[in-house]
Amino acid sequence: MSNFQVINHPLIQHKLSILRRKDMGTKVFRELVDEIGMLMAYEVSRDLPLEDVEIETPITTTTQKQLAGKKLAIVPILRAGIGMVDGILKLIPAAKVGHIGMYRDEETLEPHEYLVKLPEDISSRQIFLVDPMLATGGSAILAVDSLKKRGATNIKFVCLVAAPEGVQALQKAHPDVNIYTASLDEKLNEHGYIVPGLGDAGDRLFGTK
Ligand code: URA
User: Fold this and answer.
1) Are 198 and 204 in contact (CB under 8 A)?
2) Residue of the CA atom closest to atom 6 of ligand 1
3) C-beta separation of 129 from 75 below 8 A
4) Are 160 and 181 in contact (CB under 8 A)?
5) Which of 93, 96, 75 is nearest to 84 (CA)?
6) Engineering a disulfide at 50: which of 65, 96, 142, 160 sits with its beta carbon 3.0 to 4.6 angstroms away?
7) Which of 108, 145, 176, 208 is catalytic?
8) What is the pLDDT along the chain (209 residues), one digit of tens a residue?
9) Using one digit for the tens of pLDDT, what is the confidence trace for 93-132?
10) Which of 198, 204, 206, 209 to mutate for ligand 1's pocket (most ligand atoms within 8 Å of CB)?
11) Which residue's C-alpha comes closest to atom 5 of ligand 1?
12) Residue 206 and residue 25: Cα distance in Å, rounded?
């Protein structure tokens, strides 16, 4: 699977195992999604371009490095994507945050878009599109469609748990989008849940049912 990367960092893998446990309450679940989001951001931002900058230290003038090129936007897919935003912002505090609202029809499992609110200059930004779960891929594909319609060209999709079905669907629809996950799970079940997965990420984050 090209353009696809499982982030195998030991801290991420350890925290993800705790996150999956069904007895983890809302508080801990939220904290872990935040922490894993931050660690994922560290890995996903490895290839951000740098440029030279001349600075003055208290001792001398020197040429050092600073981030160059396109600025960043974090775009969570509502609602579960919100859980990853603060963690990423801890590392990239100047990033703008857009939102794409999707709900999944419980019968057809088809996603529907109900909200798109993005930074004005989205077309010139590197985008981290985030959603903890890449299940059928329907929401991710629709969200990327939506971003591209508004001029976005540089999109990374960042999730915590992916199903092979979702990865394949997203790669087929948008081969230019790089996909990062903390785990490639086994499959989807007949209700569209990832197996073994962690259940409904939105419900577990927000304490709903
Ligand atoms: N969305 C979730 O929150 N969990 C799944 O397993 C699949 C989709």
Assistant:
1) yes
2) 193
3) yes
4) yes
5) 75
6) 65
7) 108
8) 569 999 999 999 999 999 999 999 999 999 999 999 999 999 999 999 999 999 999 999 999 999 997 799 999 999 999 999 999 999 999 999 999 998 878 788 788 999 999 999 999 999 999 999 999 999 999 999 999 999 999 999 999 999 999 999 999 999 999 999 999 999 999 999 999 999 999 999 999 98
9) 999 999 999 887 878 878 899 999 999 999 999 999 999 9
10) 198
11) 193
12) 10
Structural domains of the chain, ranges and CATH numbers in brackets? 4-206 (3.40.50.2020)
- Ligand 1 atom closest to Cα of 201? 3
Establish whether 26 is a catalytic residue: no
195 DSSP 8-state letter? E
Active-site residue, from 86, 150, 153, 203: 203
Return d(Cα 194, Cα 63) in angstroms, integer: 49
Q: Judge if the beta carbon of residue 135 lies within 6 A of ligand 1.
A: yes
